[in-house]
Amino acid sequence: MSGICSYGGYVPRYRLNRMQVYKAMGWMNPGNIANAKGEKAVANFDEDSITMAVAAGLNALNGKNPTVVDGVFLASTTMPYKERLNSGIVATALGLGEEIHTADFSGGLKAGTGALLSAVDAVASGRLNNVVVTAAESRLGKPASPQELIFGDAAAAFMVGNDNVIAEFKGAYSLSYDFTDHYRGKDAIYDRQWEDRWIRDLGFDQFIPQVVNGLLEKLDLKINDFAKIIYDCHYSAARKKLNKMLGIAPEADQSNFQIEIGQSGTAQSLLMLASALETANPGDKILVVSFGSGCDALCFEATENISDHQNAGTISAALADKTELDNYTKYLVWRDILPIDAGLRSEEDVWTRWSALWRSQKMVLGLWGSKCKKCGTLQLPPQKICVNKDCGAVGEMEEYRFADKIGHVASFTGDMLAASTNPPAVYGQVEFEGGGKMMFDFTDCSLDDLETGMAVSMSFRRKFYDEKRGISGYFWKAVPTKEVK
């Protein structure tokens, strides 16, 4: 049987209280007070859809053998690259091999379930054995717009396969409509939407019942056969109406995390699914509905394996691991909405030599170093000659991955002169358990959080953004483990 073998989620550490945004911009749109409840998850200045997808993917692969993965799918409407396979970057950062199938899914908010359905079909057909499906989003609403308050950043990931399935796929039903609710042209930065009444009354009120009833009829099921029901609709009144219309029991309706995270686009329904799997019991049927240019409805049934499934990257843990972003203007700077003067050093034209990146690709994107086969000495960056003075073996190295290893702070400093959108720039030496030492930036922490000897884990982040060429570069940064749950 094919289905979900593991899952993971990722919610950025920072949360922005929506009332802060309203206090700054409410003068422009007083009606936005209706959207000012709770907080929204905000990606750090060095995070984007690729880095969040990697974080969720690593959580989904936790404890799994990466060599069995032969496919990686990424769904997002905010991919950093229009022409460069974003899922290929994700696959390399996850430490997977080259002989795999990668694909990007975009163009509409139901691309997340579209990617999941494609993975299920590929596995069921036997064409692929295990596929990692990721969905990540960092959408922008124009300042003073409802979308600025409603949207939130997050990611979810699943490993789809045939072995040790924890949620068996039972069937799906799909609708496709060129229904223009949210839209963004090829050069647009900000999301736009048509009237709320249009979206609620024609979109949610008609499409969701149509796709749900279509699935129920196809699988000969009733709505009360489902223990957990997931659908994307951030309008609270519309959700109550739909629950009543469809006969959804309160205990079956799953949280959409609008108060805690915000609407996370292609990741929305998958994030809710990852959360539902945390508390699912064997035999529970789960209904998953996405919305955007139509709808997808998927049915899963939890197996006996779910009782023994251990997962470190849960949504509940991500929700608990948070820090308030107490400055709205910092959010504007991080998203390149508010231009700033980052100093003369920020004007240096540092551009990517793609041939050099190709030669060091596994080290840069996957954080692969080397291990001496004769004496076991570890080295990062990888070397051809063993650095152990008592060994010195030449050409006796094998690849060794540092991305999933724990390191310790050997030294650190805060640099107010370095170009940074989150000064001071904090960096230093990290020494890994078992050997290997290298200079890294520290992230998701302040200078006061650090001390020598403390443990850190590695996190895939955006190293730089080249404004002149419109491209992002990536590398690994160190995060104090006290900030990682």
Automatic annotation (TrEMBL):
Pfam families attached to this UniProt entry: OB_ChsH2_C, zf-ChsH2
**GO function terms (MF aspect):** acyltransferase activity
Residues in domain ChsH2 rubredoxin-like zinc ribbon? 367-391
The superkingdom listed in its UniProt entry is Bacteria
The ChsH2 C-terminal OB-fold domain is annotated at 404-461
The record lists the membrane-crossing segments as: none
BP term (GO), one: secondary metabolite biosynthetic process
N-terminal signal peptide: none
This one is known as 3-hydroxy-3-methylglutaryl CoA synthase
Q: Which organism is it from?
A: Desulfosarcina alkanivorans
